[in-house]
Amino acid sequence: MTLFTPLDLVAIAGFVAAWGGYAFLVEHTRHGHISLNRRMNAFREVWMRRMLAREMRMVDMQIMAALQNGTAFFASTSLIAIGGALTLLRSTDDMIAVASYFPFGIPTSRALWEAKTIGLCVVFVYAFFKFAWAYRLYNYVAILLGATPFASEKDTPEAEAHVLRTARLFTSAGRHFNHGQRAFFFALGYLGWFAGPIALMAATAAVVIVMWRRQFVSDSLRAIAGDKD
Predict the structure, then answer these.
(1) pLDDT, position 1
(2) What are the Cα distances from residue 8, in Å, to 15, 17, 19, 135, 171?
(3) How many CB atoms lie within 10 A of CB 221?
(4) Is 174 exposed, middle or buried (0-12, 13-18, 19+ CB in 10 A)?
(5) How far is CA 196 from the centre of its chain?
(6) Which candidate, 36, 29, 31, 8, places its Cα nearest to that of 181?
(7) Other CB atoms closer than 10 Å to residue 186's CB: what's the count?
C-alpha cells in the first residue's frame, strides 16, 4: 500500500516549490531588490556609518541587545515547537481519534500521520538552526561594533573597511533570521496537510500571498520607500 496518495505528493511538492520559489524571488531576482528586506539591508549600512561618527555608542549597543533578545526568543520558541511536534508523534493514536471528529477530518493511517508529523518537526528544526545561527551572528556583529574605530578616525580607509564588513555581517544575520521566520510562516501552511492535501495547497497559497504582500505592497514598504517608489 502506498503511503502517500498522488494528491498528497502534488500538494507537498507544491509546498516545497512555493517555499523555494518565494525565497528565490525575494533574494535572487531583480524584483526582490525592491522588497522590504532588501531596503532594510541598505539601512543597516546607513546605521553603521552614522554610528561611526558618534562618540557615544551606548544606544547602538542597546539596539543590538534588543535584536539579540528577539532572536533568542524565536530560537527558544522553535525548541518549544519541536517539543510540541514530538508530542504529536508520541500521541498519534489519540490525535487521529480527535481529528476524526472534526468536520474536515479525513481518514488517515498511523504511518501517514507520523510522516506528516516528522515533516513538521523537520521544518521547526530548520527554523531553530536558522535562529540559533542568526543569534550567533548578532554576537559577532556586537563584537565588531565594539571594535569600531573612534569617531576621529571615521575618514580613514580602515574605518571604511570596518563599516562595510560590519554591514555585510549584519545583513547576513538578518538574512538567516528571515529564513527562520519564513520557516515559521510556512509551518502554519504545513499544518493544513493534517486536514488533507487540498487544505495544504490552500494554506500554502495563503501564506505565500500574505508574505508577498508584506514584502512588496505593504504600508511598511511604502513608509520606507517613499511615495515616489
Answers:
(1) 47
(2) 10, 14, 17, 36, 37
(3) 19
(4) buried
(5) 25
(6) 36
(7) 24
Query: Element (H or E) spanning 130, and its range?
Result: helix 110-146
Question: What's the pLDDT at 216?
Answer: 93
Per-residue pLDDT of the chain (229 residues; tens, 9 = 90+): 478 889 999 999 999 999 999 999 999 888 888 899 999 998 999 999 999 888 888 898 999 999 999 999 999 999 999 999 888 888 777 766 666 666 655 667 788 888 899 999 999 999 999 999 999 999 999 999 999 999 888 889 999 999 999 999 999 999 999 999 999 999 999 999 988 899 999 999 999 999 999 999 999 888 887 654 4
String of DSSP letters for 187-227: HHHHGGGGG-HHHHHHHHHHHHHHHHHHHHSSHHHHHHH-T
Q: CB–CB of 95/112 below 8 Å?
A: no
Rounded CA separation 222/93 (Å): 49
Cell numbers linked to 130:
536558522
Grid coordinates of 147: 571594535
The span from the CA of 212 to the CA of 194, in Å, is 24
Residue 35 near residue 143, CB atoms below 8 Å: no
Alpha-carbon distances, residue 53 vs 92, 139, 151, 161 (angstroms): 59, 22, 5, 15
Long-range contacts made by residues 35-40, C-beta under 8 angstroms, separation at least 24? 35/215, 35/216, 35/221, 36/214, 36/215, 36/216, 36/218, 36/220, 36/221, 36/224, 37/174, 37/175, 37/178, 37/215, 39/221, 39/224, 39/225, 40/174, 40/224
